[in-house]
Amino acid sequence: MGDQMQVIVEKLNQEPFRKNYNLISFDSLEPLQLLQLLSDVLGEIDPKHAVDIREELPEQTAKRMLNLLGILKYKPPGTVSDLSAFRQGLVTGSKAVIHPVLHWLLQRTNELRTRAYLARFLVKLEVPAEFLQDDTVADFNKQYEELMEAFKNLHKEHEQLKISGLSTAEIRRDISAMEEEKDQLAKRVERLKKRVETVQNHQRMLEIARQLRLEKEREESLAQQKQEQKSQLFHTEQRLQRAQVQLKEMQHMVADSKPESLMKKLEEEINFNSYLVNEKIPREMESKKTSVYFLQKLVAEPAMTQADLTALESEIEEVTAQMNQLIEKRIITYEPTDSKFSMYRQQASIISRKKEAKAEELQAAKEEMSSLEKQVEQKNSQAQGLGGSEVLTEEEFKQYVSRLRGKNTLYKRRRQEVAEITAEYGILQRTEELLRQRHQATQQQLQAIEEKKGISGYSYTQEELERVSAVKSEMDEVKGQTLDNMSEMVKKLNAMVAEKKASLAPVIKELRQLRQTCQELTQECDEKKMQYDSCAAGLETNRSALEQEVKGLLEECAQEESNYRYINCMKRSLEVQLQRAKEEMKAYVSPEPQERRRAVREQYTRIILEQENLGKKLREKQKVVRESHGLNMKQMKMWQDFEKLMECKRECFLKQQNQAAIGQIIQEGGKDRLVL
Q1: Cα separation of 76 and 53, whole Å?
Q2: C-alpha dihedral sign at 292, 298, 299, 304
Q3: How far apart are CA 115 and CA 109, in angstroms?
Q4: Phi, psi of 133 (to 5 degrees)
Q5: 368-390: b (≥16 Cβ within 10 Å) or e
Q6: How far apart are the first and last CA of the chain?
Q7: What is the pLDDT of residues 216-270, one digit of tens each?
Q8: Which terminus in the chain has less CB density within 10 A, N or C?
Q9: pTM of this prediction?
Q10: Any idea which fold 1-123 has?
Q11: 629 vs 532, 606, 616, 619, 621, CA distance in Å?
């Protein structure tokens, strides 16, 4: 119940309510104030319910709240009899009924606001079956249901768009950038095609370059596999050495120790592990779950602006101030019986905090030891790798990455070219097939004409002679070109090899010197790093010891300050009570009537006498009213009968006057006729 009230007070002190309650002021609210508070919360969820309950009857208030709670799907606890008690408690403003409702509403305000908004459009109106027999009413009902379904679909799409976070402007920018990049790539492909087509034997050179690239990639993969196998072998040897060292240590411990010491160590380890499993890890898991819940909630909300951050900071400051006030009130309202156990509570809290701190230190030391072991393994593998092959520098690695990107781009471009050539090859095949069919038809016609003329086989013989002569001339040209190209290529390759050797000779010398310098600097860096690590470890140890000491002193200072404030507040409250008691005693004992009237006892005595006199007068008045009630009722009935009688006489008199007027008019009409 205390946790429930704490949550309610925290939510009510936040936006949009800002009630500035504390536990004491919230618990002291009257039933009418609680009902008004519940009505305000419901009005925040559904603006139609933001009303003042003093302007409506209690039955209307209860009915309105019950209807909204039913729409929001709130389920009161208990059976049917408990439901009737729930309705009665809601009418009377009972804390046992309203507190759970407030707790349920304030924990899911956003969800319930959405549900209340949807209920205005999705709560179906029940039309009686006899009205649905009318065609017009049935058509309107059908349209109403279709509109409800359309609203559901639109709301779902709206929520999905809100969650997706897609921006049309960003998509358009990406599309335009991709189109520009596509145009640039197409232009580059065209330029490279034109440049390659001018080179002689470009197909053969491309094939040789492809084979060279494949062989280099294979060589690199084999070298990488070799390096990985070396590192795996090294790690395996290291693990074997560590296992052997641990085995020797365990054998030494078993040989030199006693069963009692081993049992004691095992018990300590079991106690530590049980503390981790039963206390520390569940608490950490609970905190992690809470943080994950808040992070998910934060991710689901829209992006926050600087104004939102400023508002949250102000809320944090207000909540901190309220917490300090509650702590001070709690210290003031401590009972004397609680003060007897304060020392034991403080000692228990100090011991629990020290226990948690030591457990965290031990866990951190274990994690640090495991990380250091991993670093040692990495350093050993790096040292082994340095001894076996060269390590790329940052610039070389960047160049390697840029080359990979260029190769990837070239590969994509070539793949696209291959696809285009494949498509063109299919078109050419189809064209060739059509031309072949036409050629066959033409040959058949030519043979038929030759047979008619008597020169069958003339065209075939002529084509064979032309083909043989063309093939012979092409072979002669190819042989001459091949010999010339081979001689030119050999000359060019020899010249390129000589130039590369001459240009790489000074670079190789510089590289050897730089390698030697790099090894010396690496060795010096390792030595300096070892010195730095040892010095940093010592300083870190001293710093942690000083931090623990300072933390303990701060805790003691805070505890002493808390005791001082508690004693000072108790002293002030006792002084105020003592002063009030002295003034009351002085006024009560004083012989002067004025002073005695100021005493609280005299004031309450006077008020009691006045109320007793007022009660006597009211009872006498009630007695007089009861005695005269029968006569008054009889007299009232007589006056009512008299009023009815007079009304009847008035109506009779009016009727008589109307009849007399009609008779006079008839007589005047007869006289006029006689005169005529």
Answers
A1: 22
A2: negative
A3: 10
A4: -70, -20
A5: eeeeeeeeebeeebeebeeeeee
A6: 107
A7: 888 998 998 898 888 888 888 888 888 887 777 777 666 656 667 767 777 877 8
A8: C
A9: 0.28
A10: Actin-binding Protein, T-fimbrin; domain 1 (1.10.418)
A11: 108, 34, 20, 15, 12
